[in-house]
Amino acid sequence: MGGKFLFDGPGEAPVTILLAHGAGAPMDSASMNATAQALAGAGFRVARFEFGYMAARRTSEGRKPPPRAETLNPEYRAAIAELGTKGALVIGGKSMGGRVASMVADDLHAEGKIAGLLCLGYPFHPPGKPEQLRTRHLADLQTPTLICQGTRDEFGTRDEVSQYDLSDRIELLWLEDGDHDLKPRKTISGFSAADHLKTLAEAAARWAGRLAS
């Protein structure tokens, strides 16, 4: 990983959010940039990092495919240790990055190392394969969690997710007509991507305020 973090927001913010990227796009994708800036605008310090396979794409020829999500758990733990935050820490990420964070969250929360989990477009199942659920560990999750999901996300729509057995520590923020990048079709929803990111950031700030209290 090489200690390369991207930072947004005030360095002295009371809450830092550590975000990992999704399976196919890097930490500085347009979607990740816009989300980090929105969260920074709501008063968070935001740190982003890349898993090794994605960082390798910047230097080597050929694209390494993403590994199985659970094999990245040690890399996420290493990033937290390397980041070394002073205030409260929320971990999470986009899609697969949030899923990896969700798999390590309870151990870290029990150890007092993190305050919460923030997932942006959680991949509840692969697109077109609603029977292949990735929710088993979410049923008894103990870490306070906010999942921000578009209502038409092909990895888990509002109708599908309403059927799942999820821990009562999980709060869901539904963004109307949002896709997997949380982007709505403006002509249909009346909302822009920027509107949804502002809603997300404000909701995250209120949620984090409750964690702190």
TrEMBL record:
It holds the Pfam family Abhydrolase_11. InterPro entries: AB_hydrolase_fold, KANL3/Tex30_Abhydrolase, NSL3/Tex30. Residues 15-208 form the KANL3/Tex30 alpha/beta hydrolase-like domain. The keyword Hydrolase applies. SUPFAM superfamilies: alpha/beta-Hydrolases. Transmembrane segments: none annotated. Keywords: Hydrolase. It comes from the Bacteria. One of its GO terms (molecular function) is hydrolase activity. This is Alpha/beta hydrolase. It comes from Sinorhizobium medicae. The lineage of its organism: Bacteria, Pseudomonadati, Pseudomonadota, Alphaproteobacteria, Hyphomicrobiales.
